[in-house]
Design goal:
This protein is an alpha+beta fold and 178 residues long. It is 29% helix and 30% strand. The protein is built from four helices and eight strands, in the order ββααβββαβαββ. An eight-stranded mixed β-sheet has the order 1-2-3-4-5-6-8-7, sandwiched between helices. The radius of gyration is 15 Å and the shape is globular.
Length: 178
């Protein structure tokens, strides 16, 4: 996949195996997993398999999570992007476009997630012409819930996953395609 996107401060490109070390450092941090599934990555080989899985999504769906790089320093700060969910059911849904992101802790609170989210929602709706993009966040993750709301997503409902964790379900619709 050759797609490269940019915002004022960020470069977004397909994940590469060379991102494994930085991605492993992010995913090995328990704080990063506080509002996820509490399962930090334990070895870099697991991270490499995740990157290969994402790369297969690029081929299958022409989109997926992208490495998110700080332009000023060239640092990998995490991943952001749209993926097509067809491998599991979430809140009773499958075969839908999902927006998500994960950033390394040292890059939290600097507006990068909001900047990337705005760009991805615009790209998905206006360039990919997606009808609906969903997102889901842990109900207690105030920062992520705030980001989704302020970037135009609409809170739809709360739901419980199979482990009993409470999640918020979000949606943005393409107004041109309604």
């Amino acid at each position: 996949m050759n797609l490269i996107l940019q915002t004022e401060r960020l470069l977004l490109r397909p994940l590469e195996l060379s991102d494994a070390e930085a991605m492993f450092a992010m995913d090995n941090n328990p704080n990063v997993h506080l509002y996820l599934w509490q399962k930090p990555t334990q070895d870099i080989e697991e991270t490499k398999k995740i990157i290969e899985m994402v790369q297969s999504q690029y081929i299958k769906n022409s989109i997926g999570r992208f490495a998110t790089i700080l332009k000023e320093t060239g640092e990998f700060i995490g991943w952001t992007g749209i993926k097509f969910v067809d491998d599991h059911v979430e809140n009773g849904n499958t075969n839908f476009f999902d927006y998500g992101y994960r950033l390394s802790e040292k890059f939290w609170g600097k507006g990068y997630a909001t900047e990337a989210t705005r760009m991805w929602l615009d790209y998905g709706l206006n360039h990919m012409n997606i009808d609906k993009i969903h997102a889901y966040t842990h109900s207690e993750n105030g920062a992520s819930n705030t980001i989704l709301k302020k970037t135009g997503m609409t809170f739809m409902e709360t739901y419980f996953d199979e482990d009993g964790s409470k999640w918020n379900w979000w949606l943005i619709e393409n107004q041109k395609r309604k």
